[in-house]
Amino acid sequence: MKCVPVSVLLAFGANLPSAAGGPATTIAMALERIKGEKSVCLTAVSPAYATPAWPPSEQPDFVNLVAQVETVLPPEALLTVLHGTEAAFGRVRDVRWAARSLDIDILSYGDAVLPDPVIWKVAADDAPGALPRAPLVLPHPALHKRDFVLRPLCDIAADWCHPVLRLTAAQMLNRVDHSGNNRYEKVVLPAL
Fold this sequence. Notes:
Layout: E1 6-14, H1 23-35, E2 40-45, E3 48-51, E4 62-71, H2 75-88, E5 103-109, H3 117-125, H4 147-157, H5 169-175, E6 185-187
Antiparallel strand pairs: 1-4, 1-5, 2-4, 3-4, 3-6
Helix pairs in contact: 4-5
InterPro entries: Hppk, Hppk_sf
Signal peptide: 1-19
Keywords: ATP-binding, Folate biosynthesis, Kinase, Nucleotide-binding, Signal, Transferase
């Protein structure tokens, strides 16, 4: 039996330097590392943006972008690969929403809704900070609320349709509250 690749959307963010360099360099090198994965094919990368930290804090600005990949890995195995990439660039998971050298989130995995639509709805409706760390929730339960993810997502997949909300990325961006994050500056990733 031949495995059929699944289209996956990933969000990258960083606001601390890693051993590789500043956030833009770290993200560029993380993308290169993912390109080297046998089971993952990088198909699109949005422009990178510098945006204020979220939730609002005194942290340094983040560099954010969205990438599209194709993979035959199941979601949990892909998450393991992404966590390995984060760790390779010094990511430490101790305090939620702390400044970090690299953060890679799976935004969507094909049309998968995990663990199921009822739990997805509960996770998506919870207040910030109330989301459980445990099982993988897909699509990302806060995707539709975060302009710093939706803006770069629209650069590469404005017509992508959320499998639960039935809204495109462009429609979600038009509906999101932009008041907390109205500053976007394009960042050029270094050529490697």
